[in-house]
Amino acid sequence: MDLLEDDTPGRNEPEYTVSEISGAVKRTIEGEFGRVRIKGEVGRVMVARSGHVYLDLKDDRAVLASIIWKGQAAKLAVQPEEGMEVVAIGKLTTFPGQSKYQMVIEDIRPAGVGALMAMLEKRKKALEAEGLFDPARKKPIPYLPEIIGVVTSPQGAVIRDILHRLRDRFPRKVLIWPVAVQGEGCAPQVTAAIEGFNAMTPGGSLPRPDLIIVARGGGSIEDLWGFNEESVARAAAASDIPLISAVGHETDTTLIDYVSDIRAPTPTAAAEIAVPVRLDLLAAVDSYGARMAQALSGMVGARKQRLTDLSRALPRASELTQTARQRFDLAGGRLDASLKAGTATKRLSFEKAASPLRPSILARQTERMTARLTQTAGRLHTALDRRAERSRAQFDHVSGGLSLKGIQRDLGLQRDRLGRTTRTASQAGCIQVKSWRDQMEKLDRLRETLGYQATLERGYAVVWDGDKVVTNSTQAQKVTTLEVQFKDARIPVGAAAKAAPKPKPLKPGQPSLFDD
């Protein structure tokens, strides 16, 4: 092999950077396809914190990553769910950060009625599993509501039918919450209307309704799809106000029909369920009044006849009091004799009791009490003398223990304790002062190390203009007298050096030529 031979083959391929090749691929894909319509099954669906929706479109052989931006996702009439067969409209692009291509979806719709029914069935099973269809949680409808709230479109024939039917049966106050009954704004507006009625304050300036009717005329499944949204079903289930759903015709069934308290086949039927017929009520009230009056009249007559029959069996009033009157007369006749006999008996008893109470007897009793008192006073004097003697002995015993020597001994002990405490405090003070002194010395050494004098010791110099430090050549050219300070002296330079044969003395604290 020749030494100059180069066996490396020639390199004629174009060279790109990573960003250049990514941009070229992006322009190729976007320019080649533009806007596309893709049919497929929704795979993984993920809603990011930013609000963007990331999902996969797939078939039996491939998967296409897709994204719906936050602003566009809020406008979709149908939100994508996993397993839904859809038709997506958008454009193909690339994401250089992960070296992949993806679809930016601008609109997404179910692929036919079959997909909508499959999604509806899936939502229905999920809500049923949560117990929202349970009949036990449904609330009874008030018999005669004072205020009725109607959620519907104000322009359609539905509201006119409801108002006409209510006026014919039993006029009531009606609050209308206008909403879109189909399209993208249907579900959020109906949800807001149900929640808004529930948020009203009872008895406020705009009173809270006693009953809510959600109504719409008939239509296709696509037209009624807003009432199949999960948000509408959950709002209806969470409503504290009883709710009647009247969406579509009798054969149309939506999710709100399952969670409502009562489903009406038509809006007109909802009005009939909401209120009774006023004329029927008046006729029933009249009938009940007539029956009540007749029953009351018959009951009073029967009670009167019963009272008459019972009064015949009762004896006369004079016969009832005859025996008691006779007993009263006999007792009154015996009363005078009984009072006289009682008075005589009491007088005899008093005389018997007073006969022993003579002055001589009272005098003897007084003498006995006086002798007894004198004897008790003598014993009390003796007891007081004995108690005073015992107290004096206890006092002498206690005072004997309080000698001068004992007090001096206690003072000596206290003096020793004070001395020990003083010595301990003195030692602690010395240790603290020494610690502070060591700390001050460390700080002083640190000050000397960080000062510019230490820098001068390493061979550096400081240029002065009087009391100011010259830091650059511009300042040096403007001054007439310069002084250079070394570690051991401060020496003038230039013309000033010739005029001053001796170094200029330094300020206090700075080194000088005359310092040892």
UniProtKB/TrEMBL annotation:
Annotated OB-fold nucleic acid binding domain residues: 16-109
Residue ranges, annotated region (Disordered): 495-516
Protein keywords: Cytoplasm, Exonuclease, Hydrolase, Nuclease
Catalytic reactions on record: Exonucleolytic cleavage in either 5'- to 3'- or 3'- to 5'-direction to yield nucleoside 5'-phosphates
Pfam families for the chain: Exonuc_VII_L, tRNA_anti_2
Taxonomic superkingdom: Bacteria
Oxidoreductase found in the keyword field: no
Enzyme class: hydrolase
Domain Exonuclease VII large subunit C-terminal: 132-402
GO cellular component, one term: cytoplasm
InterPro entries: Exonuc_VII_L (IPR003753), Exonuc_VII_lsu_C (IPR020579), OB-fold_nuc-bd_dom (IPR025824)
Subcellular location: Cytoplasm
An individual GO BP term: DNA catabolic process
Record-listed E.C. numbers: 3.1.11.6
Function field: Bidirectionally degrades single-stranded DNA into large acid-insoluble oligonucleotides, which are then degraded further into small acid-soluble oligonucleotides.
Assembly and oligomerization: Heterooligomer composed of large and small subunits.
PANTHER family from the UniProt entry: EXODEOXYRIBONUCLEASE 7 LARGE SUBUNIT
Protein name (record): Exodeoxyribonuclease 7 large subunit
Biological source species: Litoreibacter halocynthiae
Record lineage: Bacteria, Pseudomonadati, Pseudomonadota, Alphaproteobacteria, Rhodobacterales
